[in-house]
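[User] Once you have settled down, look closely at the record that follows, and write a paragraph about the fold.
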Amino acid sequence: MNNKYPHLLSPMKVGNTLFKNRIFTAPTGVHALQNGQLSFQESVITHFSGRAKGGAAMVTCTGVQVNPDTKSDGSHLHINPYTTEGLRSLYELAARVHHFGAVASMQLSDQFRYDQYYAVGPGFTKLGRQSVEMPREIIEKKVKMFGDAAEIVKKAGFDMCMFHIGHGGEWAQFLSKRDNKRTDEFGGSLENRARYPLMIIDEIKKRCGKDFLIELRFSVSEVDPGGITIEDSIEFVKLLEGRVDLLHCSCGMNNARYFTTTHPSGFLPDTPNVKYAEAIKKSGVNIPVVAIGAIQNLEQAEEIIASGKADFVTMARGIIADPEVPKKAYEGRGEDVRPCIKCFKCHDGACYYDHFVCSVNPTIGIEDKLDKYILPTAGGKKICVVGGGPAGMQAAIYLADRGHKVVLFEEKDRLGGQLNFADHAEFKRDLGRFKKYLMTQVSKRDIEVRMNTTATKKLLAAEDPDHVIIAIGADPLVIPIPGVDQTVKAPDVFGNEDKLGQKVVIIGGGQVGAETGIHLAWLGKDVTILEMQSKIAPDAWFTYKWAMDIELNERENLHTVVNGRCSGIHDGYVSYLDSDGTEQKLEADSVVLCVGFRSKTAAAEGLIVEGIPFTFIGDCKKVGTVQQAVRGAFDIAMTL
Protein backbone atom coordinates (compact mmCIF):
# COMPACT_ATOMS: atom_id res chain seq x y z
CA MET A 1 0.00 0.00 0.00
CA ASN A 2 1.24 3.50 -0.79
CA ASN A 3 1.05 6.74 1.17
CA LYS A 4 1.00 9.20 -1.73
CA TYR A 5 -2.59 10.23 -1.04
CA PRO A 6 -3.06 9.77 2.72
CA HIS A 7 -5.85 12.32 3.17
CA LEU A 8 -7.78 11.25 0.10
CA LEU A 9 -7.69 7.61 1.13
CA SER A 10 -8.53 8.11 4.80
CA PRO A 11 -11.95 6.76 5.87
CA MET A 12 -14.59 9.05 7.34
CA LYS A 13 -17.82 8.30 9.13
CA VAL A 14 -20.98 10.34 8.56
CA GLY A 15 -23.66 9.38 11.05
CA ASN A 16 -23.50 5.60 11.12
CA THR A 17 -22.24 5.30 7.56
CA LEU A 18 -18.52 4.68 7.04
CA PHE A 19 -17.00 5.89 3.79
CA LYS A 20 -13.80 3.97 3.00
CA ASN A 21 -12.16 6.96 1.29
CA ARG A 22 -13.00 10.53 0.32
CA ILE A 23 -13.80 9.91 -3.36
CA PHE A 24 -17.46 10.05 -4.42
CA THR A 25 -18.86 9.77 -7.92
CA ALA A 26 -21.45 12.29 -9.03
CA PRO A 27 -24.84 11.51 -10.62
CA THR A 28 -24.35 12.02 -14.35
CA GLY A 29 -27.00 11.90 -17.06
CA VAL A 30 -26.73 8.60 -18.93
CA HIS A 31 -29.95 8.88 -20.92
CA ALA A 32 -28.46 7.36 -24.06
CA LEU A 33 -27.68 4.08 -22.30
CA GLN A 34 -31.27 2.94 -22.59
CA ASN A 35 -34.25 3.58 -24.77
CA GLY A 36 -36.73 5.26 -22.48
CA GLN A 37 -37.52 2.18 -20.43
CA LEU A 38 -38.98 2.87 -16.99
CA SER A 39 -36.65 0.41 -15.24
CA PHE A 40 -32.85 0.38 -15.10
CA GLN A 41 -31.40 -1.67 -17.95
CA GLU A 42 -28.20 -3.69 -17.72
CA SER A 43 -26.34 -0.97 -19.61
CA VAL A 44 -27.01 1.56 -16.84
CA ILE A 45 -26.48 -0.90 -13.98
CA THR A 46 -23.11 -1.96 -15.40
CA HIS A 47 -22.08 1.67 -15.88
CA PHE A 48 -22.85 2.84 -12.35
CA SER A 49 -21.60 -0.32 -10.65
CA GLY A 50 -18.37 0.06 -12.62
CA ARG A 51 -17.69 3.17 -10.57
CA ALA A 52 -17.98 1.11 -7.40
CA LYS A 53 -15.74 -1.54 -8.92
CA GLY A 54 -13.16 1.18 -9.51
CA GLY A 55 -12.92 1.82 -5.77
CA ALA A 56 -15.13 4.85 -5.08
CA ALA A 57 -16.42 5.19 -1.53
CA MET A 58 -19.87 6.24 -2.67
CA VAL A 59 -21.70 6.06 -5.98
CA THR A 60 -24.64 8.39 -6.55
CA CYS A 61 -26.89 7.04 -9.29
CA THR A 62 -29.61 8.95 -11.06
CA GLY A 63 -32.84 8.38 -12.92
CA VAL A 64 -35.53 7.74 -10.28
CA GLN A 65 -38.59 9.96 -10.66
CA VAL A 66 -40.74 10.80 -7.67
CA ASN A 67 -43.87 10.96 -9.81
CA PRO A 68 -45.90 7.70 -9.72
CA ASP A 69 -47.41 8.65 -13.09
CA THR A 70 -44.03 8.94 -14.82
CA LYS A 71 -44.28 8.00 -18.49
CA SER A 72 -41.52 7.22 -20.93
CA ASP A 73 -40.64 9.89 -23.45
CA GLY A 74 -38.75 7.30 -25.49
CA SER A 75 -35.25 8.61 -24.85
CA HIS A 76 -34.52 9.93 -21.36
CA LEU A 77 -33.63 8.02 -18.20
CA HIS A 78 -36.90 8.33 -16.28
CA ILE A 79 -37.24 5.38 -13.89
CA ASN A 80 -40.64 4.77 -12.30
CA PRO A 81 -39.92 3.08 -8.95
CA TYR A 82 -43.61 2.41 -8.35
CA THR A 83 -43.76 -0.31 -11.01
CA THR A 84 -42.65 -3.88 -10.39
CA GLU A 85 -39.97 -3.63 -13.07
CA GLY A 86 -38.70 -0.31 -11.78
CA LEU A 87 -38.48 -1.52 -8.18
CA ARG A 88 -36.74 -4.76 -9.10
CA SER A 89 -34.16 -2.88 -11.15
CA LEU A 90 -33.53 -0.63 -8.15
CA TYR A 91 -32.78 -3.70 -6.03
CA GLU A 92 -30.32 -4.96 -8.63
CA LEU A 93 -28.55 -1.61 -8.98
CA ALA A 94 -28.13 -1.18 -5.23
CA ALA A 95 -26.93 -4.77 -4.86
CA ARG A 96 -24.39 -4.39 -7.64
CA VAL A 97 -22.95 -1.17 -6.17
CA HIS A 98 -22.75 -2.83 -2.74
CA HIS A 99 -21.15 -5.93 -4.28
CA PHE A 100 -18.14 -3.84 -5.22
CA GLY A 101 -17.87 -2.23 -1.79
CA ALA A 102 -19.36 1.24 -2.23
CA VAL A 103 -22.12 3.11 -0.44
CA ALA A 104 -25.13 3.44 -2.76
CA SER A 105 -27.05 6.71 -3.18
CA MET A 106 -29.84 7.66 -5.56
CA GLN A 107 -30.70 11.12 -6.83
CA LEU A 108 -34.44 11.76 -6.71
CA SER A 109 -35.78 13.77 -9.63
CA ASP A 110 -39.08 15.49 -10.24
CA GLN A 111 -40.26 15.44 -13.85
CA PHE A 112 -43.94 15.60 -12.93
CA ARG A 113 -45.93 16.73 -15.93
CA TYR A 114 -48.71 19.22 -15.38
CA ASP A 115 -50.94 21.13 -17.72
CA GLN A 116 -49.19 24.19 -16.34
CA TYR A 117 -45.54 24.90 -15.68
CA TYR A 118 -45.45 25.68 -11.99
CA ALA A 119 -42.58 27.77 -10.65
CA VAL A 120 -42.01 30.09 -7.73
CA GLY A 121 -44.05 32.64 -9.66
CA PRO A 122 -44.87 33.87 -13.15
CA GLY A 123 -42.22 35.04 -15.57
CA PHE A 124 -40.26 31.83 -16.11
CA THR A 125 -40.13 29.75 -19.27
CA LYS A 126 -39.57 26.00 -19.58
CA LEU A 127 -39.92 23.94 -22.74
CA GLY A 128 -41.76 26.83 -24.31
CA ARG A 129 -44.31 27.11 -21.50
CA GLN A 130 -44.82 30.18 -19.35
CA SER A 131 -44.90 29.60 -15.62
CA VAL A 132 -47.64 30.20 -13.12
CA GLU A 133 -47.16 30.44 -9.37
CA MET A 134 -47.01 27.04 -7.69
CA PRO A 135 -49.94 26.73 -5.32
CA ARG A 136 -49.76 25.22 -1.83
CA GLU A 137 -51.56 22.03 -2.90
CA ILE A 138 -48.93 21.28 -5.56
CA ILE A 139 -46.14 21.95 -3.07
CA GLU A 140 -47.68 19.52 -0.59
CA LYS A 141 -48.21 16.95 -3.34
CA LYS A 142 -44.57 17.12 -4.36
CA VAL A 143 -43.37 16.89 -0.76
CA LYS A 144 -45.34 13.66 -0.32
CA MET A 145 -44.02 12.25 -3.61
CA PHE A 146 -40.43 12.82 -2.51
CA GLY A 147 -41.12 11.04 0.78
CA ASP A 148 -42.76 8.12 -1.02
CA ALA A 149 -39.90 7.77 -3.50
CA ALA A 150 -37.26 7.97 -0.77
CA GLU A 151 -38.99 5.16 1.12
CA ILE A 152 -38.99 3.00 -2.00
CA VAL A 153 -35.31 3.72 -2.68
CA LYS A 154 -34.47 2.80 0.91
CA LYS A 155 -36.55 -0.36 0.65
CA ALA A 156 -34.58 -1.34 -2.46
CA GLY A 157 -31.34 -1.21 -0.50
CA PHE A 158 -29.93 2.26 -1.09
CA ASP A 159 -28.11 3.82 1.85
CA MET A 160 -28.93 7.42 1.05
CA CYS A 161 -30.43 9.79 -1.50
CA MET A 162 -29.54 13.06 -3.16
CA PHE A 163 -31.81 16.08 -3.34
CA HIS A 164 -30.65 18.56 -6.01
CA ILE A 165 -31.75 22.15 -5.50
CA GLY A 166 -29.09 23.99 -7.49
CA HIS A 167 -28.40 25.44 -10.93
CA GLY A 168 -31.40 27.75 -11.08
CA GLY A 169 -33.99 24.99 -10.85
CA GLU A 170 -37.33 24.95 -9.08
CA TRP A 171 -36.07 25.03 -5.48
CA ALA A 172 -33.31 27.52 -6.28
CA GLN A 173 -36.03 29.86 -7.55
CA PHE A 174 -37.71 29.68 -4.16
CA LEU A 175 -34.39 30.39 -2.38
CA SER A 176 -33.46 33.33 -4.59
CA LYS A 177 -34.28 36.82 -3.35
CA ARG A 178 -34.29 37.95 -6.97
CA ASP A 179 -36.70 35.29 -8.21
CA ASN A 180 -38.97 34.81 -5.20
CA LYS A 181 -41.51 37.64 -4.99
CA ARG A 182 -44.18 35.63 -3.15
CA THR A 183 -46.09 37.23 -0.30
CA ASP A 184 -47.30 34.00 1.31
CA GLU A 185 -45.45 31.69 3.74
CA PHE A 186 -43.00 30.73 0.96
CA GLY A 187 -41.71 34.25 0.28
CA GLY A 188 -39.98 37.07 2.10
CA SER A 189 -37.57 35.96 4.82
CA LEU A 190 -34.90 33.30 4.29
CA GLU A 191 -36.85 30.91 6.50
CA ASN A 192 -39.89 31.36 4.26
CA ARG A 193 -37.92 31.08 1.00
CA ALA A 194 -36.29 27.90 2.27
CA ARG A 195 -39.57 26.43 3.52
CA TYR A 196 -40.38 24.34 0.42
CA PRO A 197 -37.04 22.49 0.09
CA LEU A 198 -36.89 22.06 3.87
CA MET A 199 -40.35 20.47 3.83
CA ILE A 200 -39.04 17.85 1.39
CA ILE A 201 -35.90 17.22 3.44
CA ASP A 202 -37.90 16.91 6.66
CA GLU A 203 -40.38 14.55 4.99
CA ILE A 204 -37.59 12.24 3.80
CA LYS A 205 -35.97 12.18 7.25
CA LYS A 206 -39.32 11.53 8.95
CA ARG A 207 -40.14 8.67 6.59
CA CYS A 208 -36.69 7.07 6.30
CA GLY A 209 -34.97 7.78 9.63
CA LYS A 210 -31.71 9.41 10.61
CA ASP A 211 -29.54 6.58 9.28
CA PHE A 212 -30.79 7.12 5.73
CA LEU A 213 -28.47 9.92 4.74
CA ILE A 214 -29.42 12.90 2.59
CA GLU A 215 -26.87 14.60 0.37
CA LEU A 216 -27.91 18.03 -0.86
CA ARG A 217 -26.50 19.58 -4.01
CA PHE A 218 -26.93 23.33 -4.35
CA SER A 219 -25.39 26.35 -6.05
CA VAL A 220 -23.35 28.12 -3.42
CA SER A 221 -23.27 30.97 -5.91
CA GLU A 222 -25.36 31.25 -9.05
CA VAL A 223 -22.59 33.54 -10.39
CA ASP A 224 -25.30 35.45 -12.25
CA PRO A 225 -25.59 39.07 -11.05
CA GLY A 226 -28.55 39.35 -8.71
CA GLY A 227 -28.70 35.61 -8.15
CA ILE A 228 -27.88 33.55 -5.08
CA THR A 229 -24.55 34.59 -3.53
CA ILE A 230 -22.02 32.87 -1.29
CA GLU A 231 -23.28 34.99 1.60
CA ASP A 232 -26.86 33.85 0.93
CA SER A 233 -25.77 30.23 0.98
CA ILE A 234 -23.80 30.57 4.20
CA GLU A 235 -26.99 31.74 5.87
CA PHE A 236 -29.02 29.00 4.18
CA VAL A 237 -26.84 26.12 5.33
CA LYS A 238 -27.39 27.14 8.94
CA LEU A 239 -30.98 25.97 8.44
CA LEU A 240 -29.72 22.59 7.26
CA GLU A 241 -27.99 21.60 10.51
CA GLY A 242 -29.50 18.36 11.79
CA ARG A 243 -31.41 17.86 8.55
CA VAL A 244 -28.85 17.24 5.79
CA ASP A 245 -25.86 14.91 6.07
CA LEU A 246 -23.65 16.02 3.16
CA LEU A 247 -23.42 19.30 1.25
CA HIS A 248 -22.42 19.15 -2.45
CA CYS A 249 -21.19 22.65 -3.22
CA SER A 250 -21.82 23.46 -6.86
CA CYS A 251 -22.43 26.79 -8.61
CA GLY A 252 -23.97 28.39 -11.67
CA MET A 253 -27.23 27.99 -13.51
CA ASN A 254 -28.60 25.90 -16.35
CA ASN A 255 -28.28 28.47 -19.10
CA ALA A 256 -25.74 29.05 -21.83
CA ARG A 257 -23.84 31.74 -19.90
CA TYR A 258 -23.47 30.12 -16.50
CA PHE A 259 -23.69 26.41 -17.30
CA THR A 260 -20.00 26.70 -18.19
CA THR A 261 -19.25 27.59 -14.58
CA THR A 262 -21.25 24.62 -13.32
CA HIS A 263 -19.34 22.36 -15.74
CA PRO A 264 -15.95 24.06 -16.14
CA SER A 265 -14.10 23.94 -19.43
CA GLY A 266 -10.42 24.50 -20.09
CA PHE A 267 -11.10 28.21 -20.45
CA LEU A 268 -11.35 28.34 -16.64
CA PRO A 269 -8.52 27.53 -14.19
CA ASP A 270 -8.17 24.05 -12.72
CA THR A 271 -10.77 23.16 -10.05
CA PRO A 272 -12.38 26.63 -10.19
CA ASN A 273 -15.40 25.66 -8.08
CA VAL A 274 -13.56 24.34 -5.03
CA LYS A 275 -13.63 27.87 -3.63
CA TYR A 276 -17.36 27.47 -3.06
CA ALA A 277 -16.90 24.32 -0.97
CA GLU A 278 -14.10 26.07 0.91
CA ALA A 279 -16.36 29.03 1.69
CA ILE A 280 -19.05 26.79 3.13
CA LYS A 281 -16.45 24.77 5.05
CA LYS A 282 -14.96 27.94 6.53
CA SER A 283 -18.41 29.17 7.57
CA GLY A 284 -18.30 26.70 10.45
CA VAL A 285 -21.21 24.53 9.36
CA ASN A 286 -21.25 21.14 11.09
CA ILE A 287 -22.16 19.23 7.94
CA PRO A 288 -19.49 17.48 5.86
CA VAL A 289 -18.72 19.39 2.67
CA VAL A 290 -18.22 17.86 -0.78
CA ALA A 291 -16.24 19.68 -3.47
CA ILE A 292 -17.22 19.31 -7.11
CA GLY A 293 -16.35 20.82 -10.48
CA ALA A 294 -13.77 19.35 -12.87
CA ILE A 295 -11.64 17.68 -10.21
CA GLN A 296 -9.58 15.65 -12.65
CA ASN A 297 -6.65 14.00 -10.94
CA LEU A 298 -5.41 12.56 -7.68
CA GLU A 299 -3.00 15.37 -6.89
CA GLN A 300 -5.79 17.93 -7.09
CA ALA A 301 -8.09 15.77 -4.97
CA GLU A 302 -5.45 15.10 -2.31
CA GLU A 303 -4.68 18.82 -1.99
CA ILE A 304 -8.37 19.68 -1.56
CA ILE A 305 -8.79 17.27 1.34
CA ALA A 306 -5.35 17.87 2.90
CA SER A 307 -5.86 21.65 2.95
CA GLY A 308 -9.26 21.34 4.61
CA LYS A 309 -11.16 22.95 1.76
CA ALA A 310 -13.64 20.05 1.77
CA ASP A 311 -14.24 16.72 3.45
CA PHE A 312 -14.90 14.80 0.24
CA VAL A 313 -14.49 15.26 -3.50
CA THR A 314 -16.93 14.00 -6.08
CA MET A 315 -16.04 13.30 -9.69
CA ALA A 316 -18.25 13.25 -12.78
CA ARG A 317 -16.37 13.62 -16.06
CA GLY A 318 -13.13 12.52 -14.43
CA ILE A 319 -14.65 9.20 -13.35
CA ILE A 320 -16.13 8.67 -16.82
CA ALA A 321 -12.67 9.15 -18.32
CA ASP A 322 -11.22 6.67 -15.83
CA PRO A 323 -13.54 4.72 -13.48
CA GLU A 324 -10.46 3.31 -11.72
CA VAL A 325 -9.26 6.62 -10.27
CA PRO A 326 -9.71 5.42 -6.64
CA LYS A 327 -8.08 2.05 -7.36
CA LYS A 328 -5.08 3.80 -8.86
CA ALA A 329 -4.91 6.06 -5.80
CA TYR A 330 -4.53 3.02 -3.55
CA GLU A 331 -1.81 1.73 -5.86
CA GLY A 332 -0.01 5.09 -5.94
CA ARG A 333 -0.34 5.35 -9.71
CA GLY A 334 -1.46 8.92 -10.25
CA GLU A 335 0.42 9.09 -13.54
CA ASP A 336 -1.75 6.24 -14.84
CA VAL A 337 -5.05 8.07 -14.34
CA ARG A 338 -6.51 8.73 -17.78
CA PRO A 339 -7.25 12.47 -17.84
CA CYS A 340 -10.53 14.00 -18.94
CA ILE A 341 -10.03 16.59 -21.68
CA LYS A 342 -13.22 18.56 -20.86
CA CYS A 343 -14.66 18.19 -24.35
CA PHE A 344 -18.24 17.61 -23.05
CA LYS A 345 -18.86 14.68 -25.39
CA CYS A 346 -19.98 12.51 -22.46
CA HIS A 347 -22.49 15.12 -21.33
CA ASP A 348 -23.80 16.18 -24.71
CA GLY A 349 -23.73 12.69 -26.18
CA ALA A 350 -25.61 11.08 -23.31
CA CYS A 351 -28.15 13.86 -22.87
CA TYR A 352 -28.75 15.30 -26.32
CA TYR A 353 -27.09 13.38 -29.12
CA ASP A 354 -28.36 9.90 -28.18
CA HIS A 355 -24.90 8.34 -28.08
CA PHE A 356 -22.91 8.13 -24.85
CA VAL A 357 -19.18 8.40 -25.59
CA CYS A 358 -15.97 9.59 -23.98
CA SER A 359 -13.10 10.99 -26.01
CA VAL A 360 -10.42 9.24 -23.98
CA ASN A 361 -12.23 6.13 -22.73
CA PRO A 362 -13.62 4.06 -25.63
CA THR A 363 -15.36 1.53 -23.37
CA ILE A 364 -17.84 4.11 -22.05
CA GLY A 365 -21.33 3.37 -23.29
CA ILE A 366 -20.51 -0.25 -24.15
CA GLU A 367 -19.48 -1.56 -20.72
CA ASP A 368 -22.19 -4.23 -20.72
CA LYS A 369 -21.23 -5.40 -24.21
CA LEU A 370 -17.44 -5.61 -23.96
CA ASP A 371 -17.46 -9.36 -24.56
CA LYS A 372 -18.82 -8.59 -28.02
CA TYR A 373 -16.03 -6.10 -28.76
CA ILE A 374 -12.99 -7.67 -27.11
CA LEU A 375 -12.03 -10.90 -28.84
CA PRO A 376 -9.88 -13.49 -27.07
CA THR A 377 -6.21 -13.40 -28.01
CA ALA A 378 -3.17 -15.54 -27.40
CA GLY A 379 -0.91 -12.53 -27.96
CA GLY A 380 2.46 -13.02 -29.55
CA LYS A 381 1.80 -11.30 -32.86
CA LYS A 382 4.19 -8.73 -34.25
CA ILE A 383 2.36 -5.49 -35.01
CA CYS A 384 3.86 -2.46 -36.73
CA VAL A 385 2.19 0.85 -35.90
CA VAL A 386 3.06 3.79 -38.15
CA GLY A 387 2.46 7.19 -36.57
CA GLY A 388 2.95 8.40 -33.00
CA GLY A 389 -0.11 10.60 -32.63
CA PRO A 390 -3.05 9.76 -30.34
CA ALA A 391 -4.39 6.96 -32.55
CA GLY A 392 -1.01 5.31 -33.01
CA MET A 393 0.04 5.59 -29.37
CA GLN A 394 -3.29 4.32 -28.09
CA ALA A 395 -3.23 1.37 -30.47
CA ALA A 396 0.31 0.48 -29.38
CA ILE A 397 -0.70 0.59 -25.71
CA TYR A 398 -3.72 -1.66 -26.18
CA LEU A 399 -1.78 -4.11 -28.33
CA ALA A 400 1.07 -4.36 -25.85
CA ASP A 401 -1.44 -5.01 -23.05
CA ARG A 402 -2.85 -7.87 -25.12
CA GLY A 403 0.56 -9.50 -25.31
CA HIS A 404 1.67 -8.51 -28.78
CA LYS A 405 5.11 -7.33 -29.85
CA VAL A 406 4.69 -3.74 -31.01
CA VAL A 407 7.02 -1.61 -33.10
CA LEU A 408 5.97 2.05 -33.28
CA PHE A 409 7.40 4.24 -36.06
CA GLU A 410 7.40 8.03 -35.74
CA GLU A 411 9.00 10.22 -38.39
CA LYS A 412 9.60 13.17 -36.04
CA ASP A 413 11.76 13.41 -32.93
CA ARG A 414 8.83 13.27 -30.51
CA LEU A 415 5.51 11.55 -30.05
CA GLY A 416 2.19 13.39 -29.86
CA GLY A 417 1.29 14.21 -33.45
CA GLN A 418 -1.43 16.83 -33.73
CA LEU A 419 -1.76 16.95 -29.94
CA ASN A 420 1.57 18.72 -29.56
CA PHE A 421 -0.10 22.08 -30.16
CA ALA A 422 -1.70 21.70 -26.71
CA ASP A 423 1.68 22.40 -25.09
CA HIS A 424 1.29 26.02 -26.19
CA ALA A 425 -2.42 26.74 -25.58
CA GLU A 426 -3.28 27.21 -21.92
CA PHE A 427 -6.94 26.34 -22.33
CA LYS A 428 -5.91 23.06 -23.98
CA ARG A 429 -3.80 21.95 -21.01
CA ASP A 430 -6.10 18.97 -20.39
CA LEU A 431 -5.48 17.73 -23.91
CA GLY A 432 -1.77 18.21 -23.21
CA ARG A 433 -2.17 16.07 -20.09
CA PHE A 434 -3.80 13.36 -22.16
CA LYS A 435 -0.89 13.45 -24.59
CA LYS A 436 1.53 13.14 -21.67
CA TYR A 437 -0.53 10.25 -20.29
CA LEU A 438 -0.29 8.38 -23.60
CA MET A 439 3.45 8.99 -23.81
CA THR A 440 3.87 7.74 -20.23
CA GLN A 441 1.88 4.60 -20.96
CA VAL A 442 3.97 3.90 -24.06
CA SER A 443 7.18 4.31 -22.04
CA LYS A 444 5.95 1.93 -19.32
CA ARG A 445 5.36 -0.90 -21.78
CA ASP A 446 7.63 -3.11 -23.83
CA ILE A 447 6.97 -1.12 -27.00
CA GLU A 448 9.84 -0.57 -29.40
CA VAL A 449 9.66 3.09 -30.44
CA ARG A 450 11.67 4.17 -33.44
CA MET A 451 11.83 7.95 -33.56
CA ASN A 452 13.05 9.97 -36.55
CA THR A 453 12.08 7.02 -38.73
CA THR A 454 9.96 7.44 -41.83
CA ALA A 455 8.20 4.17 -42.48
CA THR A 456 8.25 2.90 -46.03
CA LYS A 457 6.71 -0.05 -47.75
CA LYS A 458 10.15 -1.65 -48.01
CA LEU A 459 10.92 -1.09 -44.32
CA LEU A 460 7.59 -2.58 -43.23
CA ALA A 461 8.03 -5.60 -45.50
CA ALA A 462 11.43 -6.22 -43.97
CA GLU A 463 9.87 -6.29 -40.50
CA ASP A 464 7.60 -9.13 -41.65
CA PRO A 465 4.78 -8.19 -39.23
CA ASP A 466 1.50 -10.00 -38.73
CA HIS A 467 -0.42 -6.74 -39.08
CA VAL A 468 0.32 -3.10 -39.94
CA ILE A 469 -1.65 -0.25 -38.38
CA ILE A 470 -1.30 3.03 -40.24
CA ALA A 471 -2.02 6.22 -38.29
CA ILE A 472 -0.13 8.95 -40.14
CA GLY A 473 -2.75 11.67 -39.74
CA ALA A 474 -3.73 14.51 -42.04
CA ASP A 475 -2.31 17.66 -43.59
CA PRO A 476 -3.79 21.17 -43.38
CA LEU A 477 -5.95 22.05 -46.34
CA VAL A 478 -4.78 24.83 -48.64
CA ILE A 479 -7.49 26.46 -50.74
CA PRO A 480 -6.91 28.37 -54.00
CA ILE A 481 -7.07 31.97 -52.80
CA PRO A 482 -4.84 34.65 -54.36
CA GLY A 483 -1.93 35.23 -51.99
CA VAL A 484 -2.52 32.02 -50.00
CA ASP A 485 1.22 31.35 -50.01
CA GLN A 486 1.58 34.29 -47.58
CA THR A 487 -0.50 32.55 -44.92
CA VAL A 488 0.57 30.52 -41.89
CA LYS A 489 -1.10 27.14 -41.50
CA ALA A 490 -2.92 26.59 -38.20
CA PRO A 491 -0.59 23.89 -36.76
CA ASP A 492 2.43 26.16 -37.39
CA VAL A 493 1.02 28.92 -35.20
CA PHE A 494 1.54 27.09 -31.91
CA GLY A 495 5.05 27.60 -30.60
CA ASN A 496 5.70 30.32 -33.19
CA GLU A 497 3.30 32.98 -31.95
CA ASP A 498 6.03 35.59 -31.61
CA LYS A 499 6.60 35.42 -35.37
CA LEU A 500 3.10 36.76 -36.02
CA GLY A 501 2.24 40.44 -36.22
CA GLN A 502 -0.09 42.23 -33.86
CA LYS A 503 -3.12 42.22 -36.13
CA VAL A 504 -4.01 38.66 -37.17
CA VAL A 505 -6.77 37.56 -39.51
CA ILE A 506 -7.79 33.90 -39.34
CA ILE A 507 -9.41 32.51 -42.47
CA GLY A 508 -11.80 29.78 -41.37
CA GLY A 509 -14.01 29.87 -38.31
CA GLY A 510 -14.55 26.21 -37.55
CA GLN A 511 -13.57 24.89 -34.14
CA VAL A 512 -9.85 24.86 -35.03
CA GLY A 513 -9.99 28.42 -36.33
CA ALA A 514 -11.97 29.62 -33.33
CA GLU A 515 -9.59 27.99 -30.87
CA THR A 516 -6.58 29.40 -32.71
CA GLY A 517 -8.14 32.86 -32.54
CA ILE A 518 -8.90 32.55 -28.84
CA HIS A 519 -5.34 31.38 -28.16
CA LEU A 520 -3.83 34.37 -29.97
CA ALA A 521 -6.26 36.75 -28.29
CA TRP A 522 -5.19 35.37 -24.90
CA LEU A 523 -1.63 36.31 -25.88
CA GLY A 524 -2.69 39.89 -26.61
CA LYS A 525 -2.97 39.80 -30.40
CA ASP A 526 -5.79 41.68 -32.12
CA VAL A 527 -7.60 38.88 -33.89
CA THR A 528 -10.37 38.72 -36.48
CA ILE A 529 -11.88 35.39 -37.53
CA LEU A 530 -13.34 35.34 -41.04
CA GLU A 531 -15.91 32.60 -41.66
CA MET A 532 -17.90 31.97 -44.85
CA GLN A 533 -20.79 30.27 -43.01
CA SER A 534 -23.33 32.02 -40.82
CA LYS A 535 -21.93 30.73 -37.52
CA ILE A 536 -18.54 30.40 -35.89
CA ALA A 537 -17.52 26.85 -34.95
CA PRO A 538 -20.72 25.09 -36.03
CA ASP A 539 -18.78 21.82 -35.75
CA ALA A 540 -18.20 22.21 -32.00
CA TRP A 541 -20.33 20.21 -29.55
CA PHE A 542 -22.75 22.70 -28.10
CA THR A 543 -21.76 22.79 -24.42
CA TYR A 544 -18.14 23.40 -25.37
CA LYS A 545 -19.45 25.92 -27.89
CA TRP A 546 -21.15 27.80 -25.05
CA ALA A 547 -17.77 28.11 -23.34
CA MET A 548 -16.13 29.19 -26.60
CA ASP A 549 -18.84 31.78 -27.21
CA ILE A 550 -17.98 33.54 -23.96
CA GLU A 551 -14.43 33.94 -25.23
CA LEU A 552 -15.52 34.89 -28.74
CA ASN A 553 -18.11 37.44 -27.63
CA GLU A 554 -16.58 38.98 -24.52
CA ARG A 555 -12.94 39.63 -25.48
CA GLU A 556 -12.42 43.14 -26.87
CA ASN A 557 -9.43 42.04 -28.97
CA LEU A 558 -11.26 39.15 -30.64
CA HIS A 559 -13.65 39.86 -33.52
CA THR A 560 -15.66 37.67 -35.85
CA VAL A 561 -16.99 38.16 -39.36
CA VAL A 562 -19.50 35.63 -40.69
CA ASN A 563 -20.99 35.16 -44.16
CA GLY A 564 -17.69 36.41 -45.57
CA ARG A 565 -15.87 34.61 -48.37
CA CYS A 566 -12.14 35.42 -48.56
CA SER A 567 -11.21 36.74 -52.00
CA GLY A 568 -7.52 37.45 -51.50
CA ILE A 569 -4.55 37.94 -49.18
CA HIS A 570 -2.69 41.17 -49.81
CA ASP A 571 0.13 43.17 -48.34
CA GLY A 572 -1.36 44.49 -45.09
CA TYR A 573 -4.94 43.33 -45.54
CA VAL A 574 -7.36 40.52 -46.40
CA SER A 575 -10.20 41.07 -48.84
CA TYR A 576 -13.52 39.27 -48.65
CA LEU A 577 -17.00 39.35 -50.15
CA ASP A 578 -19.78 39.94 -47.66
CA SER A 579 -23.28 38.47 -47.86
CA ASP A 580 -24.28 41.10 -50.45
CA GLY A 581 -21.28 40.33 -52.65
CA THR A 582 -19.59 43.61 -51.75
CA GLU A 583 -15.84 43.49 -51.28
CA GLN A 584 -14.61 44.42 -47.81
CA LYS A 585 -11.16 44.65 -46.23
CA LEU A 586 -9.64 43.53 -42.94
CA GLU A 587 -6.33 44.99 -41.84
CA ALA A 588 -3.78 42.23 -41.22
CA ASP A 589 -0.12 41.97 -40.26
CA SER A 590 -0.35 38.16 -40.42
CA VAL A 591 -2.89 35.73 -41.89
CA VAL A 592 -3.56 32.23 -40.55
CA LEU A 593 -5.25 29.59 -42.70
CA CYS A 594 -7.66 27.32 -40.77
CA VAL A 595 -9.89 25.75 -43.41
CA GLY A 596 -9.67 22.12 -42.38
CA PHE A 597 -7.49 19.07 -42.93
CA ARG A 598 -7.15 16.41 -45.60
CA SER A 599 -6.37 12.77 -44.82
CA LYS A 600 -2.99 11.53 -45.99
CA THR A 601 -4.77 8.91 -48.05
CA ALA A 602 -2.20 8.48 -50.79
CA ALA A 603 0.68 8.26 -48.33
CA ALA A 604 -1.22 5.73 -46.22
CA GLU A 605 -2.06 3.61 -49.23
CA GLY A 606 1.62 3.69 -50.20
CA LEU A 607 2.43 1.79 -47.00
CA ILE A 608 0.27 -1.21 -47.85
CA VAL A 609 2.43 -4.32 -48.17
CA GLU A 610 0.92 -7.04 -50.32
CA GLY A 611 0.06 -10.11 -48.28
CA ILE A 612 0.21 -8.35 -44.90
CA PRO A 613 -3.11 -7.34 -43.24
CA PHE A 614 -3.40 -3.60 -42.56
CA THR A 615 -5.76 -1.10 -40.92
CA PHE A 616 -6.03 2.68 -41.24
CA ILE A 617 -6.99 4.53 -38.05
CA GLY A 618 -7.22 8.16 -37.00
CA ASP A 619 -7.13 11.10 -39.37
CA CYS A 620 -5.50 9.18 -42.22
CA LYS A 621 -8.69 7.12 -42.40
CA LYS A 622 -11.04 10.05 -41.95
CA VAL A 623 -10.34 13.44 -40.45
CA GLY A 624 -12.02 13.44 -37.07
CA THR A 625 -11.67 13.97 -33.35
CA VAL A 626 -9.61 12.56 -30.49
CA GLN A 627 -12.61 10.42 -29.59
CA GLN A 628 -12.70 8.86 -33.05
CA ALA A 629 -8.93 8.30 -33.05
CA VAL A 630 -9.00 6.55 -29.67
CA ARG A 631 -12.04 4.48 -30.58
CA GLY A 632 -10.42 3.39 -33.84
CA ALA A 633 -7.33 2.28 -31.91
CA PHE A 634 -9.49 0.31 -29.50
CA ASP A 635 -11.48 -1.33 -32.28
CA ILE A 636 -8.50 -2.75 -34.13
CA ALA A 637 -6.48 -3.65 -31.02
CA MET A 638 -9.31 -5.64 -29.48
CA THR A 639 -9.68 -7.81 -32.57
CA LEU A 640 -6.01 -8.84 -32.87
